[in-house]
């Protein structure tokens, strides 16, 4: 599938679960790991979680949370 479709799917999965949102918002450190073929999806997903979308606020706050992206 298309990279954007995969990002949309993973973002929707994460944001549709209130418990997951609370966990992400309250975490001291967030580690996002992917294999080489998933690096683009992981990077774009991290960007969306940090910047938010037109309809939603940012979920990850690098000013207050450590964020590690490991590809």
Could you walk me through the main structural features you see in this protein, from its secondary elements to its overall organization?
α1 crosses α3 (39-51). The longest helix is centred in the N-terminal third of the chain and has 13 residues, at 3-15. The chain is α+β, with helices and mostly antiparallel strands and 71 residues long. It has helices at 3-15, 18-26, 39-51, and strands spanning 29-33, 66-70. The mean pLDDT is 94. It is globular, with a radius of gyration of 12 Å. 7% of the residues are buried.
Concise overview:
The protein is α+β, with helices and mostly antiparallel strands and 71 residues long. The chain has helices at 3-15, 18-26, 39-51, and strands spanning 29-33, 66-70.
Q: What features would you highlight for this structure?
A:
71 residues; alpha+beta; two-stranded parallel ribbon; 2 strands
Q: Roughly how much helix do the residues carry, as a percent range?
A: 40-55%
Number of helices: 3
Instruction: Compute the separation of the termini in Å.
Output: 20 Å
Strand content: 5-15%
Please provide the ordered H/E string of secondary-structure elements: HHEHE
In round numbers, the mean pLDDT is 94
Outline, from the CA principal axes?
globular
Q: The biggest beta sheet, please? A: 2 strands, parallel
Q: How many beta-strand elements?
A: 2
Question: How are the strands of the biggest sheet laid out side by side?
Answer: 1-2
Poorly predicted segments: none
Helix/strand class: alpha+beta
